[in-house]
Amino acid sequence: MENKVLICDDDEGILDLLTLVLAAKKINAVTERNSANIFEKITQEQPSVVILDLWMPVLSGEQIVKKLKLNAQTKDLPVIIFSASIDGKKIAHDAGADEFLEKPFDLKKLLDKVNVHLRH
Questions:
Q1: Where is the Response regulatory domain positioned along the sequence (predicted)?
Q2: First vs last Cα of the chain: how many Å apart?
Q3: Domains and CATH numbers, the chain
């Protein structure tokens, strides 16, 4: 199975940075800026891990995780949420996210979390 990570964030700079960082580690990254398209993108791309910003227009990371975890086909898909929000960790945990990273995040920690889930 290909190591593919789907990143969803409305910030183009974050998408570009994470794509470059993952590519340097030979991890294929696909991106989505519009959270409304995330479920279609997951179906098309079949990622091994999803990385989400907690706060996005249309659908929040919290809403996305809840829907993913309620769906039999995506309930086991690892989801990493990141946010600068003080309450972000609790919100992500309560929604069912597998991992949380505080912004600004340490890229090594992000890679470590991604790699843990890619090995499973």
A1: 4-118
A2: 11
A3: 4-118 (3.40.50.2300)
